# Entry
Amino acid sequence: MMLTETNGPELIAEVASRKTGIHVTKLGQSDKKMLTRLVERLYQRVEMAAVAEAVLRSRAKCMRALSAATSVFHIWEFITMVVLSFMQG
# Structure
């Protein structure tokens, strides 16, 4: 195999054939359609996984922000309690 700057369909088919044992150049039309659908479904799953990961990251950020806000509220509550007890005592 010769090194080239671009990889054409023939080179990709040759590498895929060597790695998988499937002779891509000898696939029938129905096999090509099946593989095309498989690739499309895998792509959709990858997209769905990326969306799910983004949602989980977003929720984690919201939870951290809520936790920080709660901490600030508790600190403020404590300071208020100390000031009031100081003023009464």
User: Anything to note?
Assistant: Residues 26-88 form one domain.
